[in-house]
Amino acid sequence: MENHNDPSGYWRANVRLILGSLVIWALCSYGFAILLRPLLAGIRIGGTDLGFWFAQQGSIAVFIILIFFYAWRMNKLDKQYGVDEE
Amino acid sequence: MSQYLINIIFVGASFALYFGIAIWARAGSTSEFYVAGGGVHPVVNGMATAADWMSAASFISMAGLIAAGGYGASTYLMGWTGGYVLLAMLLAPYLRKFGKFTVPDFIADRFYSKTAAMIAVVCLIVASTTYVIGQMTGAGVAFSRFLEVENDTGLIIAAVVVFFYAVLGGMKGITYTQVAQYVVLMIAYTIPAVFISLELTGNPIPGLGLFSNHVESGIPILTKLDQVVTDLGFTAYTADVPNKLNMVLFTLSLMIGTAGLPHVIIRFFTVPKVADARWTAGWTLVFISLLYFTAPAVGAMARLNLIDTVYPQGVAEAPLEYDQRPDWMRTWEDTGLIKYNDLNNDGRIQMYNDSGLGAAELALTNAETEGGDVGAATTAVEEARVANDTALDGRFADAGWAGNELDVNNDILVLANPEIAQLPPWVIGLIAAGGLAAALSTAAGLLLAISSAISHDLIKRNLNPNITDKGELQVARISMAVAIVVATWLGLNPPGFAAQVVALAFGIAGASLFPALMMGIFSKRINNLGAICGMLTGLLTTLVYIFVFKGWFFISGTANFPDTAEYWLFGISPLSFGAIGAVLNFAVAFAVSYATKAPPLHIQELVESVRSPRGAGGAIDH
Predict the structure, then answer these.
(1) Which of B28, B188, B324, B372 is the most buried (most CB within 10 A)?
(2) Which of B370, B386, B410 is the endpoint of a domain?
(3) Residues 6 or more apart from B344 whose CB is under 8 A from it?
């Protein structure tokens, strides 16, 4: 593959991926579920508002998706940069 | 068949299963004992880690906290799950690549310092031991209620059971036992929730039922709940919290505490490959979320069921007569976890928000009988009475309600849930087995972390580096036994309330261990001195902030300030301070490191190698 023997490139790609994931992580938990909840109050869901759903269920679902997305992307990066385990 | 016999059968059968697995998977080497030989599949390991993580706090207490706190208690749901995102991306894969047995192993090598490792060992032992106490007391409550023994006897039974399978099996035995325990606790948690959700909303999936319509009234169940609790003078269930800063920091503290707790981290040393460490974090969260999606439904529905029980004709009508109370209320009254006090002598149960009147009157009685500031207590009662009488346009005063008469401990909600919903006796037996599985699986994982810290980090690294594999295994088993005895003794003589103890464990893990591990991986510039100063800063500021409000070493009467919002720094509660401690840790570590010499070359190479998955191999000894 094209990127073999570029450890710092691999690490930069990893850190970029982590930063992107953590922005979504923070937005769904600290954002939608807590700080931005008043802004979402207009969106009703099952007798309450979207912020309440994010606080009690939505954020957890996002966390799961984020981890699997990260694991999948990293496995591809591992191979691309030739640092995967056999 | 009597309820007692059914409980015995369920609890006995589940224990027989755990013992069988422990004997089948006996550990023969230190590698099998500490990290199960490093050969556990991610899905299996995820399930075991989920059981390890979901403690008595998740199984027994969390739904009760949510029932009482409503939206505000979402902190626990997000905090105890969001940490896995941090683990999967910031810690687990690199620590697995590092490939040793314990968390202090990494601190010792990366910061080339026995002092740094010793601080990590102390943090690990204090955090884990305080956490074990919570599990032991949880198991004690479950045993005493369901096997109808004294609380202390229940605790000792719990200690003996943990002793056998943790000491015999080590990590290998614990991993497979925890898989069985996960299945038991999930079934036990889900079945009553499904019944209750069907009954209230017609939806068999509790997590969806929470956002469905209430069958009886035809309106959404959360709207219904908001109505009845506000009619009783409480804050609406879904109401926003005023102190957002504190909620954010509390959530963050729980998240980094989760990621920094050593008994969770060492689970990631048991997988064969670095990629598996990432998958394991994902699977763990999937298995945890099965309970966490159900918990908010259990909380909301239990609160509604409890109010329905006390106000059978609706909250606008007269409440239940005490003599007509259901059997579950009688049995739980025996344990002291439900208390009734007929303040207005009408023989009925008034359960509502009395603006603190009932509590103030109790304090006054105590002050009069045991000596105390009677004048201040009298003023407090008068103020609370005015608040009670003017609340909701004097509705409570007109009805002659003289204070809240029913105290229900949050911790009984899940255990009593099947009884409140009048489910068949076998469901109650199942809940007993599930609560014990949750408490014992976590206790075993914690004890393993403690024993490896003592035998591996303390004795092998510092006192006797030439100890044989067999000798080390023996020391590990002995230290585990000692840890069980200490935890049992502390469980019999608890130093503080469970919530305070949990704050301590998360505060220490989040403020000291998590930042040190993360900086060790993500920065090549942090040196030994920086890490030591950072960890000490995080640890000490967090401890001092907790002790100032909760009492020094949790000894009552030694607190410098009352533990209320107006005394907190910027409205930050002691429970939320771990996040601030972590920030201080990062800041000090960077400042000190950049003011002093960079780490030696071989350490920078170690960081490089930890970042690259290739060549991980199995977890190895020194």
Answers:
(1) B188
(2) B410
(3) B350, B400, B401, B402, B403, B405
